[in-house]
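Task card 7
Instruction: Convert sequence to structure tokens.
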Amino acid sequence: MVVNLRSFKQKVRFHQKAFKRYLGKIEKNPPRGLDTIAASIDEAVWKEVDCLSCANCCKSMTPTFTNTDIKRIASHLEMSQKEFKEKWLEFDKKAGDWVNVSQPCQFLNLQNNMCSIYEVRPVDCSGFPHLKKKKMTEYLHVHQQNVEYCPATFKMVEKMMERIPV
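Output:
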């Protein structure tokens, strides 16, 4: 299903606090079988959300680039790691991570929302939005942040609220 970003942002404004509160409660008192429930919800979410119609993560967030990511991507682009960092990244001293200098991501094609380095993209991107990690409780704080950027995360929380009342 195509994502309407304007409509999504309106829904976020209306539901964001309640969703974050809900995830906080789940984090403090996780239900039995949460990982299994998350896996089944994940499957349903992707039947309803088309990432290529959205790409809001690439437009408004930055992944963290590990040294391995930097080495792999720089090699793919046939440039040195130093050149790659100087051209596109900055070091976030507070977080201790390499991140994009600006948004949207320099590798996002805004005409079709496709990543120009998809096959070598950062690990952070390939795992996003982390909906069905093995230990979901370890990612609930991440979902609290991502709910405002990612329609798939938003949809996951909606579905969790239907299945797991708190």
